[in-house]
Specification:
The protein is of the alpha/beta class and about 375 residues long. Helices cover about 30% and strands about 25% of the residues.
């Protein structure tokens, strides 16, 4: 039976439009100024915003579950908050054995009935030991190691983060790119020249811009001019044309407000990709006073007290981005859905309200507060 979502403010590629969305067999049949069939199941959106489900391409876990250990629970946690397509990230700090087990666990879940779990993001190997929580734990594979990992994860890896300046990283990147994996530069102090080389090797994504990024000149830039210049982040924004991931928490700790606005202005709303970088650590924010940023419920810290990802969900990230940048509703959905789909090459199936794509939907108000979530045309029980 055809479902007709009426009285909706639809987030279409052309912008916000009052209209109707028709859904059949989990896919979008029509969107805009259409008349529902007489026998359609009518769903009244009551004037709410209806946009494409969120897509998170960088996430380590959710709720109480590590993504590599319990991917089903982590995926359910984020689905309730509107993430209808999810890449679970296997981090540089995992051992080879944990990487392999994570691949196995994620594949097992994906072989069951279709859900929101879409695939895997390899965050490493070949990341810099200088940048990121527990960065010193990063291990550098030899060719046999990474060939084994990609063989085990065949068909599941959509993006891979690496630091282009690391020894051996270029051969690794060229191998990963040949497997059809989108390359992301991150946890890096790459120079503008090395960024250009990485782009020639296939880099199209920048992992959490401003976070875990340094300067190839080290402190020399500060000694000469008093400030850091020619950093990896500078090179990215000056270059343009790249998808840039942004972690936008409520206190703007990962990325400062001025840098959030800079990224949006320089990269443009068609290239910013909101992510959660969510993970699980034994951090209790209630132990800190309200004026201490460590009290923020959407931040995360590891055992060493290092900022370690977040506890964000994508709806929270959207609300935070709206607060700090005053981005429009259509632009927020670009950053939280459309751009991510384009970045990892799944935009033929999801990421916008267009005919033939999966009816992965979120209903929300003007402040990006969620009301309903639909996965392939079916409502998600957000209470379970």
């Amino acid at each position: 039976m055809i479902k007709a979502i009426i009285n909706a403010r639809l987030v279409l590629p052309s912008g916000l439009q009052e209209g109707t969305l028709l859904v059949e067999d989990g896919q979008i049949l029509a969107a805009g100024s259409v008349i529902p069939p007489r026998d359609a199941e009518i769903i009244d959106a009551k004037g709410r915003i209806v946009g494409p489900g969120f897509i998170d391409i960088h996430c380590h876990g959710g709720g109480t579950a590590h993504g590599h250990e319990n991917p089903a629970e982590a995926a359910r946690h984020h689905l309730k908050s509107g993430t209808t397509s999810l890449l679970l990230s296997l981090a540089y700090s995992l051992t080879k054995e944990a990487f392999l087990q994570g691949i196995h666990n994620i594949r097992a879940v994906m072989e069951q009935e279709p859900g929101n779990l879409t695939g895997i993001h390899f965050e490493g190997p070949y990341t810099s030991p200088k940048y990121g929580a527990r960065s010193e734990a990063a291990w550098e594979m030899n060719q046999d190691d990474y060939v084994q990992l990609f063989d085990e994860a065949k068909g599941l890896v959509y993006q891979c983060t690496y630091a282009p300046e690391r020894p051996g990283a270029r051969a690794f990147a060229q191998y990963a790119h040949a497997q059809g994996v989108k390359l992301a530069a991150g946890h890096t102090e790459m120079s503008p020249a090395i960024l250009e080389e990485a782009i020639s090797d296939g880099v199209t994504i920048i992992t959490h811009l401003f976070d875990a990024m340094g300067c190839h000149l080290g402190k020399d830039s500060i000694r000469s001019t008093g400030i850091i210049q020619d950093s990896a982040a500078d090179a990215v924004l000056a270059r343009g044309g790249l998808f840039v991931e942004i972690i936008c928490d409520s206190r703007a700790i990962h990325v400062k407000p001025s840098n959030l606005r800079l990224a949006l202005r320089a990269a443009g709303p068609d290239h910013v990709v909101l992510i959660t970088d969510a993970t699980i650590r034994p951090h209790d924010p209630s132990q800190y006073p309200e004026d201490d940023y460590r009290s923020s419920p959407d931040l995360n810290f590891n055992e060493a007290g290092q900022l370690s990802g977040s506890r964000l969900t994508m709806d929270q990230a959207c609300r935070n981005m709206k607060h700090y940048t005053q981005a429009s509703i259509p632009d927020l959905f670009k950053m939280a859905s459309t751009n991510a789909a384009r970045a990892i090459g799944i935009d033929h199936e999801v990421g916008s309200l267009e005919v033939g794509k999966w009816a992965n939907l979120v209903f929300c108000d003007d402040d990006m507060n969620l009301i309903e979530v639909y996965l392939r045309g079916n409502p998600v029980n957000r209470e379970a």
